[in-house]
Design a protein that fits this description.
Elements: H1 12-34, H2 41-50, H3 58-69, H4 76-87, H5 91-115, H6 135-150, H7 157-177, H8 183-204, H9 206-209
Helix pairs in contact: 1-8, 3-7, 4-5, 5-6, 5-8, 6-7, 6-8, 7-8
Length: about 220
């Protein structure tokens, strides 16, 4: 999948990939809503047992730092990114960051209220309503896609995507290690964040997002 298309070109693969990635969390969420013990609950239970601890040392520091990424402090990341892009007169890219952030949050909150899945017992951090999907994982996946679409030169995307996958997997691990989410919640969140962001990038046209001083629409 390439985000390095010429200006004004909207690759169909981005539309197809974004839609497909969004459909999966919806289908999984529908299954969870219909059955509080879905077929994959045994996998979630086993993974949560593996995350039993000890909860200290480097793992605790890393998970605690990543926990901030999805909270109020985490909201500063796309805001600062958007303002920097506007300052550089990359208005289309800045607007893309704003809309992708809003789209990701709408998708996550809609699924949370639709599914209303209970969280694992005894989370180690403060959590809000609804375990499915993980907003932290969605935000990380969104950030990875936006950086790839806007900041990373096309010739270097082949190394950025593996880095992005590692970052997203690390966030998924941290949410389960903190007992804030089930494993399936984090996977669904990552897919939702990536899917929503790919659709937004497709709508803008990936080539336009890379122009250093390109105004909206031209």
């Amino acid at each position: 999948m390439s985000l390095a298309a010429p200006p004004h070109v909207r690759p169909r693969v981005l539309l197809s990939a974004g839609a497909a990635l969004l459909v999966v969390p919806v289908l999984v969420g529908t299954a969870v809503r219909a059955d509080r013990r879905p077929p994959f609950q045994a996998v979630d239970d086993t993974w949560l047992r593996w995350m039993g601890g000890p909860h200290k040392g480097f793992a605790e520091s890393l998970a605690s730092a990543l926990n901030l990424f999805g909270g109020p402090y985490g909201a500063l990341v796309p805001l600062v990114g958007m303002l920097v892009l506007f300052a550089l007169r990359r208005f289309g890219a800045g607007l893309c960051v704003l809309i992708a952030t809003l789209a990701t949050q709408v998708a996550v909150q809609a699924l949370k209220h639709l599914v209303d899945r209970p969280r694992p017992a005894h989370p180690l951090v403060t959590v809000d309503h609804g375990s499915f999907p993980s907003g932290h994982a969605a935000t990380m996946a969104m950030t990875v896609v936006l950086i790839g679409a806007i900041c990373v030169p096309a010739r270097r995307l082949r190394w950025w995507w593996p880095v992005g996958v590692v970052l997203t997997l690390t966030m998924m691990w941290s949410r389960t290690w903190l007992h804030a989410h089930w494993l399936s919640d984090t996977l669904a969140g990552a897919l939702a964040g990536a899917g929503a962001t790919l659709l937004v990038c497709w709508a803008f046209g990936p080539g336009r997002l890379r122009g250093r001083r390109r105004a909206i629409g031209g």
